[in-house]
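We close this part of the discussion by returning to an individual protein. Part of our work consisted of pairing the sequence of a single chain with a tokenised description of its backbone. No coordinates are needed to read the tokens, only the vocabulary itself. The amino acid sequence and the backbone structure tokens for this protein are reproduced below:
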Amino acid sequence: MEDLNLLEEVIDSLEQDSNVLRIKRLILFTCHDSWSNDVNEVKALQIRQLVRDLMIMFPDLNTLKHKLNAHVKQLSKQSDYLLAADNIIDSLGFLYTLRDEGNLPHSFLNPDHPEPDSGSQRGSSAASDDGYEKTESDTIPHKHNLKYLTNLFDLRADISRNISPLHAKILLFSSLNYRFSPQERDWSALYTYDIDDLIQLIFQTYETVEALEARLTEVSLTLDQPEDAKRASAVILQAIKPFY
């Protein structure tokens, strides 16, 4: 069954993001190789249409990750736009999963069928055939997340409301792999994951919340900004504990 409310929730979350201008610029740059420094012009861009263009142009989430990464590397403020790219992937990753499950409204990705306005979308229901033929490569990034999909969406929202998504990613990545140091500029390794991927790996790696707490505490003391890392650790644990 198509879920119109979830689509609207994702679009709204991007529109309300404090980094929305960079998100719009990065999508525009990735889709059309076009850049605008005109704030009013960027504000006038519609997130819904930008997201639609992005998903039509890059039907595979992995390909989208690589394209965004390649375009971020061309910019002078890479760390700022890396955060924008993270927010794009975190939000669109959810939409890709809805699409692969047949729950994304058919009209959203079908240029031949214009979408109804958002008011009618929120109160209507349509057929579930999205006309998209799935392949294994399309579902690999989130195939392990399906069981906890709704919880992961809520978890990510809880974490992102209280700490920077980038700080959360660095702590989770370091707890699962090796100590990440921004000074080493090893952004490509960090960028291969989105927050949903890292949270799912946390559940798979640490069988008890006690083991996770010990690891997060240990890792937070080794990072470049230990106080920020300790705060991130507390926020992540508070959000994750109810699901153990």
Summary: Residues 116-150 have pLDDT under 50 and may be disordered.
